[in-house]
Design goal:
By secondary structure, the protein is of the alpha+beta class. Helix content is 50%, strand content 6%.
Length: 423
């Protein structure tokens, strides 16, 4: 097969079809995926859509592309053109790969290949490569080669001076979390940690100290997760990965979710969701054959409290979709007490960044509501009708019919005993 796919010499600048293509055509066989050529602009558009959907490396990118696009890439690679690498380089998309660094020259070449404009940029986007450079003690030579100024040396400061510097830096940058300080001033926070001054810094800034999870009982962990008002497995993992990983190491994740009343539902696309309303919307999009990303990372703004925000869906790389559990004028109790504040923050941030948002009232599945002047009874039929209307308003038409309602009901009926499914 490798011989058949090997590219043939060009004649007068024209690339002939491979032996494989000639034999396939001579036998009258259909290719597995219809062959179609794509321009660089079309590929860049497809790649950008995948990147906006949250892919972080080439493997995830290829999985996110259509069969036609992947077929074209495979044919290009077989003919000697790594077209996806070329387009990604043009887009300045950084993808992970191995680094073979044995000398200062290797290290300098590696940094040059990445196109990094500073040491901090290199460390941020290529942590594996930068770790190798540091461990081999090539950092100073690399920085000198590019004329980069070394980071501030905090080792000469006393403990009080170091704390004062950290406090002033935190406030001058209007940071709200210690994580933000660590990302922008890694050397400073590293010195603070090495001297055991972290607790003093937290106290001086009035920040809540992080928990030491090791040794915590299941009951105590449940109490902490409830106090932090996490609303689902994904929300818990995104906002407190340390406690989530500790729970996972003890096989307690499902126990915590059960104690807090979280669901774990599977959509028609095989993806798991934390609520029935979210699962229903995913199934509607799946049945309508729209391309959408699940829980895409949002890079345009910070989450409520400074954490990493995620959307519920990103539809066709164009429309952000949120399935809200409560409206902003509702007053939920317990773990959802702060939900209206979180929603207000997120809606405002979407608008401020010019991001198209389709908000769907997930609470309608459980509670009767008046939306845009229309009164809805609680239950599946009202919620599906409302979701179809909201998506159609954003030019992603889904027609509400009795057959659609029946198909949605069948997709979730075995996963819950909720009486709202039959309404």
């Amino acid at each position: 097969m490798r011989y058949l796919m090997r590219p043939l010499p060009e004649a007068d600048g024209v690339k002939p079809p491979s032996r494989y293509a000639r034999i396939r055509d001579a036998l009258g066989l259909e290719p597995n995926t219809p062959s179609r050529d794509f321009s660089d602009d079309e590929l860049e558009h497809a790649f950008q859509k995948a990147v906006d959907g949250g892919v972080e490396n080439i493997s995830e990118l290829r999985l996110a592309l259509t069969a036609e696009v992947n077929n074209y890439i495979n044919r290009c690679v077989a003919s000697g053109d790594k077209v996806h690498h070329r387009i990604l380089k043009k887009m300045k998309f950084r993808f992970k790969h191995g680094y073979d660094i044995c000398s200062v020259e290797d290290a300098i070449g590696c940094v040059k290949d990445t196109g990094s404009q500073s040491w901090s940029e290199f460390v941020t986007h290529y942590p594996e490569a930068s770790t190798v450079v540091i461990e081999l003690e090539f950092k100073e030579a690399v920085m000198a080669s590019f004329g980069w100024t070394p980071l501030v040396n905090y080792s000469g400061k006393s403990d009080d001076e170091l704390l004062a510097t950290a406090i002033d830096t935190f406030r001058a940058n209007q940071f709200t979390t210690m994580n933000q300080l660590g990302i922008e001033y890694s050397s400073l926070i590293s010195n603070v940690r090495s001297r055991g001054l972290v607790d003093r810094l937290y106290d001086a800034l009035g920040l809540e100290k992080p928990f030491e999870w090791q040794g915590m009982s299941l009951d105590d962990l449940i109490a902490v997760v409830r106090r932090n008002a996490h609303t689902s497995f994904s929300n818990w993992h995104n906002e407190s990965s340390g406690s989530y990983k500790y729970a996972a190491s003890r096989d307690w994740v499902r126990e915590v979710g059960k104690a807090l009343g979280w669901g774990d539902y599977k959509g028609l696309n095989g993806y798991s969701y934390a609520s029935l309303p979210e699962t229903i919307v995913a199934n509607l999009l799946h049945m309508a054959k729209y391309d959408f990303a699940n829980h895409p990372r949002i890079t345009h703004f910070s989450g409520y409290g400074g954490g990493q925000p995620f959307g519920d869906f990103l539809l066709e790389g164009d429309l952000w979709v949120e399935v809200w559990a409560y409206r902003t004028d509702e007053t939920p109790a317990g773990i959802f007490e702060r939900y209206p504040e979180v929603r207000r923050h997120k809606e405002g941030a979407y608008a401020a960044n010019g991001m198209r948002l389709c908000g769907i009232e997930g609470g309608l599945f459980y509670r009767k509501q008046t939306i845009d002047g229309t009164s809805y009874a609680a239950g599946l039929s009202s919620f599906v009708r409302h979701a179809c209307q909201r998506l159609s308003d954003e030019n992603y038409a889904i027609e509400y019919t009795a057959d659609l309602l029946s198909a949605v009901r069948n997709s979730i009926v075995d996963q819950s005993e909720s009486a709202m499914i039959e309404r």
